[in-house]
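Recall that a protein's primary structure is simply its ordered list of amino acids. Everything else, from secondary elements to tertiary packing, is in principle encoded there. The following example makes that idea concrete.
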Amino acid sequence: MLAPGIRRIACAALIALLSACGSAPVGPGYYRVERGDTVYKIARSNRQSVQNIVRWNNLSNPDAIEVGQVLRVEPPAGTTTARTSAAPRAGASAPRETADAADSSSAPSAAASPSISLVWPTSGQVVRNFDGRDSKGIDIVNAAGTPVVAAAPGTVVYAGSGLRGYGNLLIIKHNGDYLTAYAHNQALFVKEGQSVTQGQKIAEMGSTDNDRVMLHFELRYQGRSIDPTRELPAR
């Protein structure tokens, strides 16, 4: 059995896997969110408006940014926009700027992240949808032992039960930007470091560390949880 200190380190590493695909430096014009950041603070530091940051990053909820998330803080190529002229005076309240304040005609028609081609990781009924706050993924219920498959090809970067609240968990890295996570399985059929193909059986649905049989499925892009149903085929 691992000593408590080692277990804490292991859990921290797993949380890092779920919250970010890596800590590599971001490119010019981008910023990685740190603890304590807000969209307003990031916009002010980069002399941009909150409206610009919301629009460039397709933020449906500016109050729900996450540590490790990468945000664009400079206008995309070919876009012109005015920076804020100066930071507000000390003691001034932050302006109330939200995505609703943006002109809908200028809102991007596609998500900020490039698409990934996914297949459904299991069969069953979706009983909880993604909301980006209380639910970082979707919950699918079916009978215990229902096959769970890899939603896309990739490499298993974690297989185990060391992260509280996830039970028997698999995390698959698909490229430098995307991760998928599969939680509460009753059995795992792949190991860390193993390559998997799309549709390959990787686990069986279970109820580990949960009060009902289900698969909790998450999709993350550059550490930011996004709605998996946006990338899954209609059914």
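DSSP finds three helices and 13 strands in the chain. The domain at 125-230 is CATH 2.70.70.10 (Glucose Permease (Domain IIA)).
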